[in-house]
Design a protein that fits this description.
Elements: H1 2-63, H2 68-102
Helix pairs in contact: 1-2
Length: 110
């Protein structure tokens, strides 16, 4: 009876540990997908849009239809978008490492 109770406890503990691992993997994978989506938006929409705004502001300044202040603000917006893109890249790397840990792998190793 005692051995059977120990076996049941061990099986229960093993199932609980497996549930924790499955949850960690699922949640890590979801965070990685979200981070990749944010990076995709940064690379395909936000940075290109900021570049277009800088180009338009530069043309406006050069032709006298726009102000220097507008050009400076556009450049600042571009730098912010670029910084946000690099932050998103770092987040993808961080989330990839998190998933690797959840899967029992050492980050950076195959």
């Amino acid at each position: 009876d005692e051995a059977e109770a120990k076996l049941e406890r061990a099986e229960s503990d093993a199932e609980a540990a497996a549930d924790e691992v499955r949850y960690a993997v699922r949640s890590s994978l979801e965070r990685l997908r979200e981070a990749r989506h944010v990076l995709h938006l940064q690379e395909t929409e936000l940075v290109p849009s900021a570049l277009e705004f800088v180009d338009a502001a530069r043309i406006g300044f050069e032709t006298g239809t726009g102000s220097f202040q507008t050009l400076i603000e556009a450049e600042r917006g571009l730098r912010t978008a670029e910084l946000d893109r690099e932050t998103a890249r770092a987040d993808v790397s961080r989330r990839s490492a998190e998933l690797a840990r959840a899967l029992g792998r050492l980050p950076g190793l195959p």
